[in-house]
Amino acid sequence: MITFGELTNRVKRLVEDTTEVEKYAPELYVDAIQNAFKAIQPWVPKTAIATLTPDATASLALPADFYDIQAVVVSSTGEVLSKTELVPGNFTGIRTQGTNAWMLFSSGEITFAKIPADDIDLYYFADWVVPIVGTPEDDEIEPPDYAITGISFYAAGQVMLPTGLGITEIRQFATKVDSGNPEHNPVQKAVDYLMKLFLNEMSRMPKIQKVM
User: Fold this and answer.
1) What is the pTM of this model?
2) In whole numbers, what is the pLDDT of the chain averaged over residues?
């Protein structure tokens, strides 16, 4: 695992910010790395398990770090419950076939067709813990090493993005009489290129198999 400081230095090298006078504010690097941690989640998920204890209602609160669901299992029997598909002809509530079923509704909750009689094991994808302003440089980051290249590409694009947007406004790089569209903006082109590199890198990740 690499440290927050090592990751920041990788991003700085990509945006050519390696002199004593920094081109970009330290807070911008933190924002960019936070965004990159979120961007990799569809390809590099953080797996977690939580046990939900039922109460008198059919809706239970999801964990605070919940991002997406993997599977819902009855703790006592190991049965994997099905997701309710809200399509014409299907039934929900007490008429649901099988032991039980679930759906993500409403926001921040998982709702069961029937009030669960036993604890529920929730297998889910969680948010990566992100660095914040003031995070020590020697703190290790959570995402695995194989995601660092993609994180670096995305974060570098995010660091450059405000400059690219600013150039679009003042058109200081427009060199033609009718110029001003994005193709005459070198910073924006660099941001677009970094995003393409990010997507290409993420496409190399193993496909995530979800149980529903």
Assistant:
1) 0.86
2) 90
